Amino acid sequence: MGKQVAVAFLLIFLIFFLPFLWGEADVLPAVPPAGDAAQPPVPDTDPAPTRYDASATITVLLDGQAQQMDLQTYLMGVVRAEMPAAFELEALKAQAVAARTYTLHKIANGGSANHPDADACNDIGCCQAFKSYEDAAAGWGVDAQAFEEKIRQAVEDTDGECILYEGEPVLAVFHSSSAGVTQDASAVWSESLPYLQSVETPESAETVPNYCSTVSFSAEELKNKLQAALPEANLSGSPSNWFTNMRQEPNGTVTAVSVGGVTVSGTKLRAILELRSACFTVSFDGGTVTFSVTGYGHGVGMSQYGANVLAADGMGYQEILTWYYTGTAIGRP
Ligand SMILES: [Zn+2]
């Protein structure tokens, strides 16, 4: 009797509940219907934004070898080579934007006649310096990873940004340090540009290594160097009579000087004697001629040490750039 009741209950259970159990399986099909598959997939996250520098490819001549690389890789190499990585992050960002602007300005203006098949090279007399991570890291030592990350941030945080004048990337030249003011482009080169004017710059002997430097020559040595570059110069008699009619700007930058009767620019004399800048005085002591020089570089555009002082004082990279490049705005071209 008990066994029959148990079988009856089992049958009732199977009759009533089994269809529900199977039905449950029908509600959750293993393969979604075709209609659902045709719906556009919903992404997990927003797609990565297009990065300007990473998507722009340029050809760079490195020690004579043409290499293709994206703009970000190139700019990181330029910033490694052109500015101390220990500088303030905002100064490094200003350098990254200046380097990008210089590169895109050159490309937009037909590139360099020195390398018609490449957009840029690593000759500092032509384009901008470039340093690989390996070369830079050898000098950075234990700071290598931190410095590299800082440079990456300087380039990435300013992705695609340029210094613009009337909407176009400018000739973003820069230099190491100046004596109180930067130079108007026309004072150094023949061309005058509205955004390369003389502006105040805050660096000094306290903030720049080798800010004041001296170079001494014997009369004989100096005569040989000058005569080789200026064959028409009359360099007879005492060296104290060789330099006449020196014209200087208020900050001491030599604009012109007569060397043995031949008038040259301060920039030219600086090149002949390999002085650190054209801001110099000359003194004579017995048979020795000494040039006392202030600052380093041509003095036009952004002063890198000045940018670092401004950044340390709390200025952002965009303000730093518009400080040095008169009448410009920062944005994508
Ligand atoms: Zn070049």
What's the number of domains?
A: 2
Report the uncertain regions.
9-33
How far do the termini sit from each other? 95 Å
Give the cofactors and ligands: zinc ion
- Helix-strand category: alpha+beta
Rough outline: elongated
- Portion of residues in helices? 25-40%
The biggest sheet, with number of strands, parallel, antiparallel or mixed sense and barrel status, is:
3 strands, mixed
Task: Determine the mean pLDDT.
Answer: 89
Looking at how many chains there are and whether they match, the oligomeric state comes to single chain
The tally of helices reads 12
Q: How many DSSP E strands?
A: 14
| Largest sheet: spatial strand order | 2-1-3
Proportion of beta-strand residues = 15-25%
The radius of gyration over CA amounts to 33 Å
Description:
α4 crosses α5 (89-108) and α5 packs across α12 (317-324). Helix content is 38%, strand content 19%. The protein is built from 12 helices and 14 strands. It has helices at 2-27, 34-37, 52-55, 71-82, 89-108, 133-140, 144-156, 185-188, 219-229, 266-273, 304-312, 317-324, and strands at 57-62, 65-70, 120-121, 162-165, 168-169, 174-175, 212-218, 243-248, 254-259, 262-265, 280-285, 288-294, 302-303, 329-331. It has 2 domains: 56-179 and 299-331, no CATH class; 212-294, no CATH class. Mean pLDDT is 89; it is low at 9-33. A hairpin with a 2-residue loop joins β9 and β10 (262-265). It is elongated, with a radius of gyration of 33 Å. By secondary structure, it is α+β, with helices and mostly antiparallel strands. The termini are far apart. The strands form 5 sheets. The protein has a 3-stranded mixed β-sheet with strand order 2-1-3. The protein binds zinc ion (ZN). Residues 112, 114-115, 120-121, 123, 126-127 line the site of zinc ion (ZN).
